[in-house]
Amino acid sequence: MARILFTPPASDYKVPTDGSFRIRRAPTKPPAELRGDDAKKDHKKALKEHVERISELQERLYAADRHSVLLVFQAMDAAGKDGTIRALLSGVNPAGCQVQSFKSPSSLELDHDFLWRISGALPERGRIGVFNRSHYEEVLAVRVHPPYLEAQNLPAPKVSGAEMWRQRHESINDFEKHLARNGTVILKFFLNVSKEEQRVRLMARIDEPDSNWKFDPRDLRERALWPAYMSAFEDTLRSTSTPWAPWYAIPADDKGFMRREVARIVRETLEGLKLKFPKVSAEQLAEMQRLREALAAE
C-alpha cells in the first residue's frame, strides 16, 4: 500500500475504488438545484473564492518544498479541459505551476516503454503540474485505435485484448503508487460531457468565427467512436481509481459547475496537506535582525 499523503475530498463524483463505477450512471449535468442563472452567478463566485485560496496554498506548497501536486485531465473533445485548466490556474503564480500537453508520441518516445515520456514531465516538489491528456491516452486512444499499439513495436510474444489493458492498468497503478510514496499528490479528473452537448459545442466552433480555429475534422471521426471510448473510459476509471490517485468523473455539460467542482476538490486537497511556511531558527532570526539594522543604518 502506498503511503497516503492526503484524504481525497468527498464528492458525489468521486469514482469508487472497488471497481463498481458505471459510466452510464455517471451524470453529465449538475443537480437541478444547481442550474439556472442564479446558479451560474454562484458558480462564478465560488470559483473565484476557490482560486484565490488555491493561490495562497500554492505559495505555501512552493515554500515548504516537500510535496508536488499532479492534476490529470482526460475527456472527450470539447469537454472543456483547456478552459477548466485556465480558470483553475488563473490566480496561481506561474513560477509554481506547469501545464503539459501530450501529443502523438515521437519515434524516440515509441522506442521506450509507454510511461517513459511522462516521467520527464512530472512536477518537482513545490509545484503544481497539470497533464492535459496524459499517460491515460495509452489505455484510451491506443485502445480505441489498434494501429497505435502496433506502432509501438512491442516484443513477442504479445499479450492482447483484455489482458493487455489489465497489465497497462496495473503498470499505471504501480507508477502512481511510486509517485505517491515520494511526495506527489495525484488527482485525476474525467470531464464527463454528454454526446449531445459535444455536438452543440462542435457546431458552435463552426458557427462562431472566433472559434473556427478550434474546429478539427478529426474530432468528428473520434466522435463516431463514442461507444468504444465510453467502454475504454469505464474500464480505465474502474481499474485505476485508487486511494493514492483517485478519479473524479465531473459533470461537464455545465462549464461553470464543472470548474467550480474541480477547483473545490483541488482547494480541499491542498488544505488537507496542512501546508506551512518553513520555520526560521533563532540563529537565523538573530542574523536577519542584524542585517535589518545594517540596512536601516544606510
Walk me through what this model shows.
- The protein has a five-stranded parallel β-sheet, with helices on both faces.
- The protein is built from twelve helices and five strands.
- It is an alpha/beta fold.
**Biggest sheet record:** 5 strands, parallel
Mean pLDDT: 94
Cα-atom radius of gyration: 21 Å
Order of helices and strands: HEHEHHEHHHEHHHEHH
Spans of at least 5 consecutive residues whose pLDDT stays below 50 are none
Number of helices: 12
Share of helix, binned: 40-55%
Assign the structural class, choosing from mainly alpha, mainly beta, alpha/beta, alpha+beta, or little secondary structure. alpha/beta
Tell me the β content. Answer: 5-15%
Give the overall shape, derived from the CA principal axes: globular
Write out the strand line-up for the largest beta sheet, numbering strands in chain order. 2-3-1-4-5
How far is it from the N-terminal to the C-terminal residue, by CA? Answer: 58 Å
**DSSP E strands, number:** 5
